[in-house]
Design brief:
The complex is a heterodimer.
Chain A: H1 20-35, E1 39-42, E2 58-61, E3 68-72, E4 77-81, H2 86-94, E5 98-99, H3 112-118, H4 125-128, H5 131-134, E6 135-142, E7 147-151, H6 163-167, E8 175-183, E9 185-186, E10 190-197, H7 203-213, E11 220-224, H8 226-231, E12 239-246, H9 248-258, E13 264-267, H10 270-276, E14 284-289, H11 295-308, E15 313-317, E16 322-327, H12 333-342, E17 348-353, H13 356-361, H14 370-379
Parallel strand pairs in A: 1-2
Antiparallel strand pairs in A: 3-4, 4-8, 5-9, 6-7, 6-8, 10-12, 10-13, 11-12, 11-15, 14-16, 14-17, 15-16
Chain B: H1 32-42, E1 47-48, H2 51-54, E2 71-73, H3 78-90, E3 95-98, E4 114-117, E5 124-128, E6 133-136, H4 142-149, E7 154-155, H5 168-174, H6 181-184, E8 191-197, E9 203-207, H7 218-222, E10 231-238, E11 240-241, E12 245-253, H8 256-268, E13 275-280, H9 281-288, E14 302-310, H10 315-328, E15 331-336, H11 340-351, H12 353-357, E16 363-366, E17 369-370, H13 376-390, E18 394-398, E19 404-405, E20 407-411, H14 416-435, H15 454-457, H16 460-473, H17 497-500
Parallel strand pairs in B: 2-4, 3-4
Antiparallel strand pairs in B: 1-2, 5-6, 6-10, 7-11, 8-9, 8-10, 12-14, 12-15, 13-14, 13-18, 16-20, 17-19, 18-20
Helix pairs in contact in B: 1-3, 8-10, 8-13, 13-14
The chains are: A alpha+beta, B alpha+beta.
C-alpha cells in the first residue's frame, strides 16, 4: 500500500495510460479521417449485412485485438479487449464458478465489443438485463480520433457523464470500442430448465400474468411457436421454456409454482444454446414490442406473419412484451412479408436483419431527433463510422 | 438584485430596503425585470430574492459549501417550469435545478444564478401496476412513490438513505443508489423514459415506456447528468415487486478485516444479498448512544448488516449459508431479526448513522468512493493510517457488498487546524481509493465537491468528450454551470488534433 500516498499527485497525469493496441486503433481511425474514408466496424463478422446499408469503403476489424485484460474473480468484474469472444470469457469465468450473464442470439464466437455495440442480449435478459445493465466501463476511439473512457472498473460509479450507456447499442456509430469492463455473477447452486406446453392463442398472456404475480423472476422465460419448439427438441406445441436459478429449494418451489401453467417437463440446459442458434444464415430477423400486458396481441401479429411465411420461427419474452420473428429467406417471401410486416405498424419494430425495403417500413430512423443527430455529429464529425447503420440521413 | 420598486407588476418587492449582500456575485441579467417576468409565470410568492429568504437554499446536505442563488423560483406545474426555462433561455441566464436539497456533493448549489426548486412538482401522474410502471413528476419524494404503489404489491427499488426526503428528480440527476441497489440496481436500471425540458426550452421525450427502444440510450445519458443536461418534466420508472419474504442479519466481528473477508465469501456464493452493509466500531458507538440505538454490540470492531429477500421458499437456506460464512470468517455472533419491528430497528441504526454522528461533533464530512471488493481490507487499513497521520477519526459505514465506501469524519469547523487536517485526509482517502482501482464517487455525484478529483480517473480527452456530450444537450452550458466536469477540461474539444487536418 506504499504507493497509495503518492498516487495522483500530478493532477494532469493520464489516469490510465493508453495501451499500444488502443493507440494502434486510434492511428487507424486517424488515417481514415485523413483519407476521408468511411469505415465499417467488424467484430467476428457474424452480423455483417445485418444492419441497414453502411456507407463505407473499408472495414476495420477489432477481432484481432482480443484478450482478457483484468479478471479478479473476487471482484466479480472482468475487463477485456473488444475483440475477445464471448466463448473466451465463458471459459475463463466458468473456471471460477462465475459467468457473464449475457447470451445474445447467435453463437459465443461473437465478440464482446460487438455485443455491447449492438446492445445484444438473449433469454437471460429477463433476469440479468441487457449489456447496458451489466456494463461498468468502456474505452473507445471516437470518429474524431480521440481515445476516451466512460465509467470505470468498479460495480458502482457515478463519476462523470455516462458515456458507457451511450455506447451500449450505438452500433459503432459513435466510436470504435476498444475495451469493456462488465459485471459478472456467481453461478447459482441450482440452474434448471423446464418446458410447458401452452395454448397457442392465450398462453403468452397467461404466462405474463403468472410471472407478474409470482414472488420470483426466472432467469429466462421464452415462449416458442410450434416450428421453433420442434427445432429445439421441445415437441410440437407452443411451448413456454423457463430457466430457474438459486438454491435447490428455491428452484424446486419455482418449478412447482410454474406448474400452474401445465405439466412441466425437465429439459436439458442445451435447449438455450439451440434456441440461440436457431436462426438460419441469411434469415430475416426482427422484433416486435409493446407493453407486456399486450403480449397476446403482439404474439398474434407474429403468428400472422408466420402464417404467410412458412417456416417462420417465433419466440417471445412475455414479461418484457417482446416477440422475435425469424423468417427463412426465400426469394418469394419478400412481398408477402412486406404486407404482413406492414400490418404490425402499431408495435415498435426493431430490425435485426432485414431486406432494404423492410428497413424502410421499420420504426423511423432512431437517431433522427436533434439530440441523437447532435451526438452523432459530435462523436463522429467526419461521418466515417458505420454511417447509415442506424438510418442516418446522408 | 436591484432594490425594490413599487411598480404595479413588481409590488411584491415593496419594502426591500437594501440590495442583496451578495449583489456582486449575482449573474448578469438577474434583475427586476426577470423577477417581474417570473412572478407573472408562478406568482409573486414563488419568486424569492431576499437573502433572508434564500438562506435555506445556500447549501445541500454537505455543509462544506455555501453558495447564494441570485434568485429562486418555484414552479407549481409543468407548464410553469417550461415557461421559466424558456424565459431564462431567451435571456441566456444560467440556472440550477434543485429537488429536496439532500445531495451530498454540492450539486444543487447555485452561485449567483437562478435556482429552480422542483419540490412543488410532486404529482404521481399515473401508476400501471400490470406493466410495473409509474409516471411521476420530478418533485415526488422517493418513499412517497413506494407508499403509493404498496397496495399493488410493488415498490420503487432505489432507496438512498435520504429516501424520506429526497425526490425522484434528484435521484435521476444523481443516478442515486442506496443499500438495496446491490441486488436491484441503481436509478439508471429503473428509469425507462423521460420527458425533459432542454436548457433552450425545447421539450423532448427520451426512451420508450413500451417495450424495447432502438437508437442511442439517451435515458442512460441523462440519468446521472447531475442537472447539466436539462430538467425532467416527468419520469417513467419501473416498479419492482415487493419480496414475499425478507430476512435481516446482524453479524459482529472483532476485526474489520474478518468482516471484509466475510463480505467476499458471501458475494462469492452466488446468493445476491438485497443489502450487505458494514458499520465500524466508531459508528456503532455513535449510533448506540443516540436516539437511533439499534442494539449493535458496542465492543465489536465491525458489524455487517445483511439482508436477503425474495420468495419464501429457499430463503432460510440462504440465511443459513450466510450465517455459516460469517461464523467461519470470524463473526462473534449472528443475530437474525425476529420480526418486522426488529428489522426496522436494525436498519434505523444504519440509515440514521450520519445523523447519529452529528451528536459527536458540530460538523460531519461524508466521503463517497468505490473500490474493488477484494481491495476492501487493504483500503480500510490505509484509511486507518490516513486517520492516524492526520489526527482525525475516520468512521466507516458503507455498502460493503459493492465496495462503496462512505468514510466520514466528525470535526469542529470552528477549529481551523482541525478543518485543514480533515481536508488533507479527505484528499488522501480519495487518492487511496483511486490507487486501489476505484472511483471517486459511487452514488453522491461529482457536483462541486469531487471536481478536483476528476483528473485522477479521467484523461483530458475523456473529460473533453464528456463536455462535448453535455454541449449537445446544453450548448450554452447554462444548466447547472460549473459542475461535474472541471471547466479547464472543456476548452479543447473543438481543437481536437485530428479534426484540424481532417480530409472533409
Amino acid at each position: 500500500m506504499t504507493a497509495i500516498a503518492h498516487a495522483g499527485t500530478g493532477a494532469a497525469a493520464e489516469p490510465r495510460p493508453t495501451s499500444n493496441a488502443t493507440a494502434a486503433m486510434r492511428e487507424r481511425v486517424a488515417d481514415a479521417i485523413q483519407r476521408g474514408v468511411g469505415l465499417r466496424i467488424i467484430g467476428a463478422g457474424t452480423w455483417l449485412g445485418a444492419g441497414r446499408p453502411v456507407h463505407a469503403s473499408e472495414s476495420l476489424t477489432t477481432s484481432d485485438d482480443a484478450g482478457i485484460t483484468e479478471y479478479v474473480p473476487g471482484d466479480l468484474t472482468l475487463t477485456a479487449r473488444a475483440g475477445t469472444s464471448l466463448g473466451e470469457i465463458r471459459d475463463a469465468t466458468t473456471a471460477h464458478g462465475q459467468w457473464l450473464a449475457l447470451d445474445p442470439f447467435g453463437s459465443d464466437e461473437g465478440t464482446l465489443g460487438a455485443t455491447v455495440a449492438t446492445g445484444s442480449a438473449g433469454p437471460l435478459r429477463t433476469f440479468f438485463g441487457s449489456p447496458r445493465d451489466l456494463l461498468l466501463g468502456v474505452e473507445f476511439v471516437t470518429g474524431a480520433g480521440v481515445v476516451a473512457r466512460g465509467g470505470g472498473r468498479v460495480v458502482k460509479n457515478v463519476a462523470g457523464f455516462d458515456l458507457s450507456r451511450l455506447f451500449a447499442g450505438s452500433w459503432g456509430t459513435l466510436g470504435v470500442i476498444t475495451e469493456v469492463t462488465l459485471r459478472l455473477h456467481a453461478r447459482p447452486e441450482a440452474d434448471e430448465s423446464i418446458a410447458i406446453a401452452i395454448d397457442a392463442a392465450t398462453g403468452p398472456g397467461r404466462v405474463r400474468e403468472l410471472l407478474r404475480r409470482l414472488p420470483f423472476v426466472p432467469y429466462a422465460c421464452e415462449i416458442a411457436n410450434e416450428p421453433l419448439a420442434r427445432l429445439i427438441g421441445c415437441g410440437d406445441t407452443v411451448t413456454a421454456l423457463f430457466r430457474m436459478g438459486g438454491n435447490a429449494e428455491a428452484v424446486r418451489a419455482q418449478r412447482a409454482a410454474l406448474a400452474e401453467l401445465g405439466s412441466a417437463r425437465e429439459v436439458n440446459a442445451s435447449v438455450w444454446q439451440h434456441l440461440r442458434a436457431a436462426e438460419p444464415e441469411e434469415a430475416i430477423v426482427f422484433r416486435l414490442s409493446r407493453l407486456p400486458i399486450e403480449i397476446d396481441a403482439t404474439w398474434a401479429d407474429a403468428a400472422a406473419i408466420a402464417a404467410s411465411c412458412s417456416g417462420t420461427l417465433v419466440h417471445a419474452a412475455p414479461s418484457r412484451g417482446v416477440v422475435r420473428c425469424i423468417i427463412p429467406a426465400e426469394p418469394t417471401t419478400d412481398t408477402t412479408l412486406a404486407a404482413a410486416f406492414g400490418a404490425t405498424s402499431n408495435a415498435t419494430r426493431i430490425g435485426e436483419r432485414l431486406p432494404a425495403e423492410l428497413w424502410e417500413l421499420c420504426s423511423k430512423t432512431p437517431v433522427a431527433d436533434r439530440l441523437s443527430a447532435g451526438i452523432k455529429k459530435t462523436f463522429d464529425p467526419h461521418s466515417i463510422l458505420n454511417y447509415g447503420i442506424l438510418g442516418e440521413i446522408v | 438584485m436591484t432594490t425594490a420598486t413599487n411598480s404595479a407588476s413588481g409590488s411584491y418587492l415593496y419594502g426591500v430596503t437594501s440590495p442583496s449582500p451578495s449583489a456582486s456575485a449575482v449573474a448578469p441579467g438577474i434583475d427586476q425585470s426577470l423577477a417581474d417576468r417570473l412572478a407573472e409565470i408562478v406568482g409573486a410568492r414563488r419568486v424569492l430574492y431576499r437573502p433572508s429568504e434564500l438562506v435555506s437554499y445556500t447549501a445541500d446536505a454537505l455543509p462544506s459549501y455555501r453558495k447564494e442563488p441570485g434568485l429562486a423560483v418555484f414552479p407549481g406545474t409543468r407548464d410553469e417550469l417550461v415557461a421559466i426555462v424558456r424565459e431564462l433561455a431567451d435571456r441566456h441566464i444560467p440556472f440550477v435545478p434543485r429537488g429536496a436539497g439532500t445531495g451530498l456533493s454540492g450539486g444543487a448549489l447555485a452561485e449567483g444564478v437562478v435556482l429552480i426548486g422542483l419540490n412543488r412538482l410532486s404529482r404521481i401522474v399515473s401508476v400501471d401496476p400490470e406493466n410495473c410502471l409509474a409516471v411521476v413528476e420530478p418533485g415526488v419524494v422517493n418513499v412517497a412513490l413506494s407508499r403509493a404503489v404498496a397496495a399493488h404489491g410493488l415498490h420503487y427499488a432505489p432507496d438512498p438513505s435520504s429516501q424520506a426526503a429526497c425526490t425522484i428528480g434528484g435521484n435521476v440527476a444523481e443516478n442515486a443508489g442506496g443499500p438495496h441497489c446491490l441486488k436491484y440496481g441503481v436509478t439508471t436500471n429503473h428509469i425507462v423514459a423521460l420527458t425533459v425540458v432542454l436548457p433552450d426550452g425545447e421539450v423532448v421525450k427520451l426512451g420508450s415506456p413500451a417495450g424495447e427502444h432502438e437508437g442511442y440510450d439517451l435515458v442512460g445519458a441523462f440519468v446521472g447528468s447531475e442537472g447539466c443536461f436539462g430538467i425532467a418534466l416527468d419520469i417513467t420508472v419501473r416498479l419492482s415487486r415487493n419480496p414475499e419474504a425478507v430476512r435481516t442479519l446482524l453479524a459482529d466481528f472483532m476485526s474489520l478485516d474478518s468482516a471484509a473477508r466475510a463480505v467476499s465469501a458471501i458475494v462469492a456464493t452466488g446468493i445476491i444479498s438485497a443489502a450487505l452493509e458494514m458499520i465500524d466500531q466508531a459508528t456503532i458507538r455513535a449510533v448506540e448512544s443516540s436516539i437511533y440505538a439499534a442494539g449493535y454490540p458496542t465492543d465489536a470492531a465491525a458489524a455487517l448488516l445483511i439482508e436477503v429477500d425474495g420468495a419464501t421458499a429457499g430463503i432460510e437456506r440462504d440465511v443459513a449459508t450466510i450465517e455459516a460464512l460469517c461464523m467461519s470468517n470470524g463473526a462473534r455472533t449472528v443475530r437474525i431479526a425476529r420480526d418486522e419491528a426488529d428489522r426496522v430497528r436494525l436498519w434505523q441504526g444504519r440509515k440514521k448513522a450520519f445523523g447519529a454522528m452529528g451528536r459527536v461533533s458540530s460538523h460531519l464530512v461524508v466521503q463517497d468512493a468505490v473500490v474493488p471488493r477484494t481491495k476492501l481490507p487493504d483500503v480500510l487499513a490505509e484509511l486507518h493510517r490516513i486517520g492516524q497521520e492526520n489526527r482525525v477519526r475516520i468512521c466507516n459505514v458503507f455498502h460493503a457488498g459493492d465496495g462503496n465506501l462512505h468514510p466520514n469524519i466528525a470535526y469542529d469547523a470552528a477549529d481551523a487546524d482541525e478543518t485543514a487536517r480533515v481536508h488533507v485526509a479527505m484528499g488522501q482517502i480519495m487518492r487511496a481509493c483511486v490507487s486501489a482501482g476505484g472511483t471517486i464517487t459511487g452514488e453522491h455525484g461529482v457536483g462541486l465537491d469531487k471536481l478536483a478529483y476528476m483528473d485522477l480517473i479521467f484523461s483530458p480527452d475523456s473529460l473533453a468528450t464528456m463536455c462535448a456530450l453535455r454541449e449537445v444537450f446544453d450548448p450554452e452550458r447554462r444548466s447547472n454551470p460549473g459542475k461535474v466536469v472541471p471547466l479547464h477540461a472543456c476548452k479543447e474539444w473543438h481543437m481536437a488534433p485530428h479534426t484540424r487536418h481532417a480530409a472533409r
